[in-house]
């Protein structure tokens, strides 16, 4: 009986990196992930391949050491910013992993692709990743379609910063006596940030303004059951999220598409999810809203396992999902 | 016959400072303004009184020299940020102007107050100052009422950055295939900023993001006559502007209030001003929309003249309009 073979999955994001090991045939994790709280640096050449390798190689050694296995036969790296900042990774990682680990199959994916693979697996549909921002990625398994993800000033409609910003605007409308104001949200604004007059001075000097705005989204959700203005904000957010899912989802072709929502926005609970279910069934009637099956690390592991068995069903794309055979020097 | 007496007006803003001289009785300018393109510095102690005086004293000497007059008998300084950053000016300017010029009457006003005085004079109503941002100031001549002016993330609803941001969002909706998109605005976005995919990289690293957003507002106005999405954005802006004017305007009391719009947003022309006239007459029926009679420097001169003749009709307010008798050492 041959030794079991393993694949490595990597989920690199703004708050750190997670590394997982799965069976090469099953794609099922065989041990708990190695977690680094040191986000991979981004420099003038994009995501820093050297900094990623410094973390990846020891993590791979630890994971395979735990299960007494050999080097992984395939690797999938999912990283935030891969589409626009992945040039260095695409240039250096194939050779480096072949040299260090003998890896011959490598997939470099943007985090939205690993989120998709984790949430829905190799099936047609759309995944909406919603935290501070909001982006949807869809596929008919022939090409990828992206919608929104333009950031807090240009879009990310219905995401955490969008909801929090709308809630703060409604609070300040109440403060000024303008229509559309919510005294309940004004009370929450003052409880969280202090007197309304001081809020601009707290917010605008910050470099993490979208996160500050998004921090108010749970207050909007908490007010929604008793406050029609807050409830209206979440209903409009749900309308935007469904619009974005619709734009990314493959058009009706007689088969059922799946739509999943992933990310921290789920924590807002029923005040958002109730309207969202209604909007998705109204706007995207050919799709079914399903819970995400797994997270982006699970998605990276499933892509790596599909690479190992030559069964990858997702479309190759220079920016979204780049597959390379690796050759050692 | 006594010699003619003069008053000095100062309009200090983000792009520089203007100094004017008027007859103390009439408040009418007697010579053209002295213009400095060096904005008064703001430091840890707020607006830098020393830096203002360095410019004010030579300007006052030049202006009075031109007309062969003595030192001004009253001064009004209108400055952006006076309400929140005027501590140093309020502490130092009365004594400094008494010592240097023998000035005994001084008013320190926020730029919204001088804009009000210039636009409407000492009458009840509201003035909406709309450029990149948007703020309304109103008075019944007993107290000031402020509305909006919360900046591009919290409000400034209907202002230049608001309109430009909404136009860019509509353009990107068209790019993604989301509802509410405008192909005409997408065409303008690409003509101005290049490919849509590059816009986040152009916008987010800038420190003058509101100005970048506002730079797209004229494109929205240019598209509005032929594009229903752009037209809808301007109609919604007009609705917001009228709401803000209503919140600042004194409530109906049987007399007619005046509402004026000032600032660069006027340049958008009929696509905005048509809907705005309709919204003001619908939402603020007790007010009449009038053109601004004069600019903030004219307002500062009229306040200084009213100080000189002891006829100031505007309400004194520690932050908005602070009047002090000046005593020399």
Automatic annotation (TrEMBL), chains A, B:
For this UniProt entry, the molecular function terms from Gene Ontology, in alphabetical order, are:
kinase activity
| UniProt keywords, alphabetically | Kinase, Transferase
Which ranges carry the ATPase BadF/BadG/BcrA/BcrD type domain?
Answer: 8-299
**A UniProt-annotated Pfam family:** BcrAD_BadFG
Task: Please give the InterPro entries that the UniProt record associates with this protein.
Answer: ATPase_BadF, ATPase_NBD, Euk-type_GlcNAc_Kinase
Q: What is this protein called?
A: N-acetylglucosamine kinase-like BadF-type ATPase
Native organism taxonomy: Bacteria, Bacillati, Actinomycetota, Actinomycetes, Kitasatosporales
